[in-house]
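---------- Forwarded message ----------

FYI, see the GFA family protein record below. Original note from H. follows.
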Amino acid sequence: MTSSPICVHCCHCSECQRQTGSAFVLNAIIEFDRVEVNGDVVENTLPTPSGKGQVITRCVECGVVVFSSYLSRLGKLRYVRVGTLDNPSECPPDVQIFTSSKQSWVPLNPDIPVYEEFYKFEDVWPDASLARWHKLFGEKD
C-alpha cells in the first residue's frame, strides 16, 4: 500500500470466516491505485451473500489471498488482507463488524467500536477517510 488505508475492518461475518478458514479477517480498505502488486497474481470471481460478487486476488506462487474487490466497487477499492503486509501491526482494526456471527470464543477489544452488523461510515471514519470515499464515489455511503 502506498498510503494508509481508508479504514481497517475486523470482519466476523460467516462468509469471511469461510473464505479465510479463520474466525475473522482484517481488511485494509484502500483506493485501487494505492496498491502496488509485486509478482504474479491470479483472480477468481466468487459469489457473495449480497449477490454483488467479489474478485479474490491470490499470489500465484503461494495461493494466499492478497486482496479482494467487490464487483460493485471494482477499479475503485481494494480490500487488502492485513496479514499479508510486511508490517501488519501498522494496520490495527478501526472497527469490528458482523459480530453477531462471531465465534463465541473470540473476545472483542472494548477499545475498538463493535457493530453486530454493518455501520454508518460517519459513525467511525475520521473526516479524512470520509473525504477520500467521497472523492471516489461522490456519495455519502
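H. also flagged this: The mean pLDDT is 93.
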